[in-house]
Design a protein that fits this description.
It is a single chain. This protein is α/β, with parallel strands linked by helices and 279 residues long. The chain contains 12 helices and 10 strands. α1 packs across α2 and α3 runs parallel beside α5. Bound molecules: ligand C2E and calcium ion (3 copies). Ligand C2E binds next to β2, α2, α3 and β6.
């Protein structure tokens, strides 16, 4: 038993070493990745369930690393967050996204919203609010066209600067969206505490609504709560037509997912959008 234990131990450390080396390489490559232009923002459209028209898009970051290949945000965002690099990278995403919104609106002659993800570390940046304001002014975009998506992780810290920042953003007129709703412990209490405009139901619930009565009931209840509180609801991760049918029945406002489109580079999106004006 003893030697087996030791083997298990050395196996574990080997795995850990590989993970640590990978992490180190990513961190090393991330410095300078902006300058090398390795980041690219993709956009995934969101649609109005009632009118079938596109109403906006979510900005999703991609990293094409020359040294390491494509790295998913699930892998690099936590590292960017840890090192603090997310602050400058996040600023790049905001600039690109507002620029994209301008192009999209000009090419279609319509008004859309653009949703950008913000992670906890970005709220510690004293410059966050002035940066958002200046970026909106520069791009000549109304604050109401920008939606900031935040998860429970942001609110969980309980720090007063978070509440202050959220309030300041709201005063600016920016929309606040609660991302991944239902996956955390206290999503409900945060809904009461903060004034969100949009609730995004997590993909894991949408995934189950066709087979699973519990998931369907939870989605139904979430939509009812959101509507009672005056929030709009986005269902994320819609992949099949049956899910859309149920979401329509449940009075969901907006949908987003592979069923309609995967996230796309800006140029593809603008190209494509002339075809899918309606779904
Ligand atoms: P998220 O904000 O929950 O974004 C939704 C994720 O679901 C995206 O993954 C999107 O590509 C994926 N998705 C959309 N529709 C479907 C579908 O129908 N089926 C499936 N299976 N997946 C779908 P992605 O782009 O890999 O991003 C992962 C996470 O990384 C995001 O989750 C977000 O937390 C983070 N992230 C991405 N871009 C940024 C960014 O610019 N800033 C920050 N702070 N975080 C970001
Ligand atoms: Ca999101
Ligand atoms: Ca989400
Ligand atoms: Ca509100």
């Amino acid at each position: 038993a003893k030697s087996l234990g030791r083997n298990a131990y050395s196996f574990f450390t080997k795995e850990m070493n590989i993970a640590m080396i990978r992490r180190f390489e990513i961190e090393e490559q991330m410095h300078g990745a902006l300058e090398r232009n390795e980041f690219e923002v993709y956009y995934q459209p969101q649609f109005d369930v009632k009118t079938n028209k596109a109403i906006g898009a979510e900005a999703l970051l991609r990293w094409h690393s020359a040294a390491l290949g494509n790295i998913t945000p699930d892998e690099f965002i936590p590292i960017a967050e840890h090192t603090g690099l997310i602050v400058v990278i996040g600023q790049y995403v905001v600039k690109q996204a507002l620029n994209f919104l301008n192009q999209w609106q000009t090419s279609e002659g319509e008004q859309y919203t653009i949703a950008v993800n913000l992670s906890p570390r970005q709220f510690r940046d004293k410059n966050l609010i002035p940066f958002i304001k200046e970026s909106l002014d520069e791009a000549n975009i109304g604050a109401g066209s920008l939606e900031l998506e935040i998860t429970e992780g942001v609110l969980m810290t309980g720090q007063s600067y978070i509440a202050d920042a959220l309030q300041a953003l709201q005063k600016l007129g920016v929309k606040l969206s609660m991302d991944d709703f239902g996956t955390g412990y206290s999503s409900l209490s945060y809904l009461r505490q903060y004034d969100f405009d949009v609730l995004k139901i997590d993909r894991s619930f949408i995934n189950g609504i066709t087979q699973n009565k519990e998931d369907r009931d939870l989605v139904k209840a979430s939509i009812a709560i959101a509507h009672n509180l005056g929030l709009d609801v986005v269902a994320e991760g819609v992949e099949i037509t049956e899910q859309l049918t149920i979401l329509k029945e449940l009075n969901c406002d907006y949908v987003q997912g592979y069923y309609f489109s995967k996230p796309m580079p800006a140029a593809h999106f603008i190209d494509f959008s002339s075809h899918y004006k309606e779904i």
